UniProtKB/TrEMBL annotation, chains A, B:
An example Gene Ontology molecular-function term: metal ion binding
CDD domains xref list: M32_Taq (cd06460)
Protein name as annotated: Metal-dependent carboxypeptidase
Catalytic center residues: E265
Species name: Neomesorhizobium albiziae
A UniProt-annotated Pfam family: Peptidase_M32
Cofactor: Zn(2+)
Sorted UniProt keywords: Carboxypeptidase, Coiled coil, Hydrolase, Metal-binding, Metalloprotease, Protease, Zinc
SUPFAM superfamilies associated with the record: Metalloproteases ('zincins'), catalytic domain (SSF55486)
Function: Broad specificity carboxypetidase that releases amino acids sequentially from the C-terminus, including neutral, aromatic, polar and basic residues.
EC number, UniProt record: 3.4.17.19
Residues binding Zn(2+), per UniProt: H264, H268, E294
Length: 494, 494
């Protein structure tokens, strides 16, 4: 039976993915510094074996044969999603993939060097090469998938999302934020004028910060029999669903940065740990995509972790683990700090979407051929001035050279961040409709009912539906920026 | 060129070995407890891919073709050693390997359960099955290699070692120890009667013990850019030469047990870290075998780490890291404690060889068909009474059910432990001949000259020679028990 053959084949592929995921997490957490070269060789060999097996031509034959077999509804869904994933994985010619990989790697290496030197002119030719190739990629994918070119790129990260649906939602959000950011800053200024911010004093011992993080992870539902917390330079959630590796990094002068990082990665981890285990080796059983994944991390970090109700429960935890008493009035100005800045990854939840919308608008035009890479510094600067009243014209390192995504050839990924933030707000609103006492639950440290809602509506559904379908089934409506703007107004407004 | 094809193929195999080694070390140190099942699937899939590539029939063709190519002396050595390894790896029919693997796994699982219950009768049928298969294996290997059956098993662990050479050396050692153990115990008793042992008080904080271990590792030559120390239930040295993972386990009541474990594993690690890097993917570039590896760990643990001169340097280290002052007269009774016991892994360096010699004698007869598994309890008890004046007749759990080796089908491995101890003593004697101030070096914490001797004579030679050839080249003579007995007499005699 071909379905059984696929099942067997996918188990082998899962084993290779397991090895790659653990080796990757290990590299960032426990590897000796001199082990990198051999590790890269090992992972590249494994990735090659994995790619060969995941794109094996017999998979197409087995899928075709299995479509004629008597399958139950779940098996049919598994087959559909496998076909989609296989098509996306095999629609580029091997010659093109190799050419593109080389250009991306060279551009990314160059970027690491030249960003530090603020050398846009030196960087531009490599970026132009990557942009030319991504246009070619988008056209190739579009031809196979029957989508617009930019949508064909998005499809790899968030199946079913379309720029034509995203753009009006982003436009509405942008219009709102251009007014709202100055308001939120004025509100903040007024509050701080009345009561200055209590500084984070420290030093906060790392082992105590770690214990605090572990206590919160456990309370929120992280399963320590299937995961762990360690340290890395850049926080991440990696590993495999049966052994989820999350990391943070500690500063002894500030307990909040590590803690909010732990909450964010815990959100990713809960999704992975609660996926349906029996389908773990099929695309059907994997997390839906980048936007949905980000909605899960932001749900825990922003909807739960920066909710004032949460801090009623959290303050005694702080006192217990750090030995320091904070009041609500003292902690919230830190948790809800808003600031205009040039750097996306440092941005707060109010200003962050403007960074993303700028990138979405620019990369859509780049892919569509309406903008040349050479014109990015001016376009970027114009956007930043319009959206955040900041200029980057003399500072491309913190402008269009800021992120690794474009040098690495990742176009279509940026929208996921803000889509995730909006989806998290929409999920919280839907959950509150069903469970009006959710804030009381947070204040009392009761996280079970909230997790149950997410397990039923998101986690257990894995990749059964497209991103917009999954959101609509979970929340009862299509993506709606109003939930996110209402959330921001309630938290940061007058 | 076939040599180049082999080189390329071996690099791919090394990548798979890298993945398996890191996944294995990770499983024992950082894996979440619930991650075991998927990890086993991943490693079993990888091991299957590795085995298929390492035994690929084209390797035989490439070796044959390369033998006709113009190769330098080192390449010829590499080809010879590859041929030897390939022959050992491929000389069993796949059907047999599968049958044996199943019997071993069942027997090992049964052993874990029934040893705890002291149930020899329940365990015997499974062990009989494994013994029958190991006899079959030995005959198959012997036929291909032209060796005696038991030697054909040893050949996998210590190439070139032969039971006919080992037996007389073990006999001489046994004769010596049967007299010497009572003497050493009497000497110890007399000393303790004069000055009772100062107890290890504790508690010794784990992070301080860890710092002490790291300081000693670093002083002895462990390269922290290519390795690390962590914690596991059973101490081991794993990972890969560019990233050697050693572990220990801590008791807060006793700093010596973790520390001596760290020194032992550091000995293994130095060997791995100092192998010739350019040959790391060829069998030529790997450590010679189990006995030579054990000689390197025991060199650091026993010849260096239990040497009184070493403790002149080490006592101030103890004081610094643990905050506790010890005198030589106080610490040496702990470092040189001798005790008759039933358990091999708990034995000291005086009594340990008798545990091994007993196993060597019994397994040689088991493989040779002169002893039946059913007769093991009586034979074991007779040996223990003769060698150590202890009985195990009512206690098979601590007799022939004591070790995992036989249930796991590992016959021919046990001699390596005591061969390693003897080789370490012989190496130390040879080193002292060249460098008479070696003890002064230890007392002053100077480990470079000692490491240089080992690098030149052992580590850099990797698998260029057979085990006995390597020993003879390094020390100028064949295996000679006199160095080990002289070492014991000097340290434990009157």
């Amino acid at each position: 039976m071909s379905f059984a053959k696929l099942d067997d084949h996918l188990r082998k592929i899962e084993a290779l993915e397991h090895a790659l995921a653990i080796l990757g997490a290990d590299e960032a957490t426990h590897m000796a510094v001199g082990g990198g070269e051999k590790r890269a060789e090992a992972m590249s060999t494994l990735a090659g074996i994995h790619h060969a097996r995941a794109t094996a031509p017999e998979i197409a034959d087995w899928i075709a044969a299995a479509e004629g077999e008597a399958l139950n509804e779940e098996q049919q869904a598994a087959l559909r999603e496998l076909k989609r994933a296989y098509t996306n994985l095999t629609c580029l010619p091997a010659e093109f993939v190799e050419r593109q990989m080389k250009a991306r790697m060279r551009c990314e290496q160059l970027w690491r060097d030249l960003r530090a030197k603020n050398d846009w002119a030196g960087f531009l030719p490599a970026l132009e090469g990557v942009v030319a190739l991504v246009r070619e990629e988008a056209a190739l994918r579009a031809g196979v998938l029957g989508l617009d070119p930019y949508d064909a790129l998005i499809e790899q990260y968030d199946p079913g999302n379309r720029a034509a649906d995203i753009a009006p939602v982003f436009d509405a959000l942008k219009t709102f934020l251009k007014d709202f950011v100055p308001q939120a800053l004025a509100v903040q200024e007024e509050r701080l004028a009345k009561a200055p911010r209590r500084p984070l004093a420290g030093p906060y011992a790392i082992d105590r910060q770690r214990e605090l993080g572990l206590a919160m992870m456990g309370a929120i539902g992280f399963d320590f029999t299937h995961g762990s917390l360690s340290v890395s330079h850049h926080p991440f959630c990696g590993g495999v669903p049966t052994d989820v590796r999350i990391t943070t990094r500690y500063k002894t002068s500030d307990f909040l940065s590590a803690l909010m990082g732990v909450l964010h990665e815990t959100g990713h981890a809960l999704y992975e740990q609660n996926l349906p285990k029996q389908w773990s080796h099929w695309p059907l059983g994997k997390a839906r995509g980048m936007a949905m994944h980000e909605s899960q991390s932001l749900f825990v970090e922003k909807q739960i972790g920066r909710n004032p109700a949460f801090w009623q429960w959290a303050l005694p935890q702080l006192a217990q683990h750090l030995g320091e008493q904070w009041t609500m009035a003292e902690i919230l100005p830190h948790v809800h700090h808003v600031e205009r800045g040039l750097i996306r990854v440092d941005a707060d939840e109010v200003t962050y979407p403007l960074h993303v919308i700028l990138r979405f608008e620019l990369e859509r035009e780049l892919v569509g051929g309406k903008l040349a890479a050479a014109d990015l510094p001016e376009a970027w600067d114009a956007g930043m001035r319009d959206y955040l009243d900041l200029s980057t014209i003399d500072n491309p390192a913190d402008g269009p050279m800021q992120d690794v995504h474009w040098p690495a050839g990742l176009f279509g990924y940026f929208p996921s961040y803000t889509l995730g933030a909006m989806m998290a707000a929409q999920q919280w609103a839907a959950l509150k409709k069903e469970n009006p006492s959710a804030d009381d639950d947070l204040a009392a440290g009761r996280f079970e009912a909230i997790a149950d809602w997410r397990r039923k509506n998101i986690w257990s559904q894995a990749s059964r539906y497209s991103t917009p379908e999954l959101l609509e089934r979970a929340t009862g409506e299509k993506l709606n920026a109003a939930h996110f703007t209402a959330h921001l107004k309630a938290r940061y407004g007058a």
